[in-house]
């Protein structure tokens, strides 16, 4: 691979920081695997089944600055987390929510978008650029947006109107401020 539209590659060597004693020659994935070995060495079986304790599914952007469990006071086993670029309610998110509700007992849905989202700086032109580069237009929409509040409202609407979901009465949407850590609730109206 020489380049791609986003200018990113994967499995690049880890920049060695102050604590860089961890696999200084390794890839980022090597570092994660080493971290997992330490995690597992202190891990005890929590004895839970797969049904989320709080019966809630959280749909959020994949943004690296959003630590869902810390930001929402969630513990292991509490919730389902469904994440993608933008926290967009795509068909695949509806698939996960449907399984979450019908097979695993969740009842509430929380949608979290955030300030400074990468999707605000993209347009549907992104698909055209991909087509120009690789000769194939993706089947998916970029789902870029300009108004984050409106984007949350649209996401809430998609969940509320899905015919596949059992529970659409408790669907709330928020914008997470990456500078303050605070959630701001969006009025669905
Ligand atoms: Zn985002």
Order of helices and strands: HEHEHEHHEE
Helix content: 25-40%
Rg is 19 Å
What compounds are bound to the protein?
zinc ion
User: Quick one: CATH superfamily of the largest domain?
Assistant: Carbonic anhydrase
In DSSP terms (H or I, runs of 4 or more residues), the helix count works out at: 5
Number of strands: 5
CATH topology descriptor of the largest domain: Beta-carbonic Anhydrase, Chain A
Structure classification: alpha/beta
- Beta content: 15-25%
Distance between the termini: 46 Å
Integer count of domains: 2
Instruction: Report mean pLDDT, rounded to a whole number.
Output: 90
Biggest pleated-sheet summary: 5 strands, mixed
Q: How would you write the strand order of the largest sheet?
A: 2-1-3-4-5
Determine and state the CATH class of the largest domain: Alpha Beta
Which CATH architecture of the largest domain?
A: 3-Layer(aba) Sandwich
What does this structure look like?
- The protein is globular, with a radius of gyration of 19 Å.
- 29% of the residues lie in helices and 15% in strands.
- Mean pLDDT is 90; it is low at 1-10.
- Strand 1, helix 2 (68-72) and strand 2 (79-84) form a beta-alpha-beta unit.
- It contains 5 helices and 5 strands; from the N terminus they run αβαβαβααββ.
- It binds zinc ion.
- Residues 1-14 have a biased composition (Polar residues).
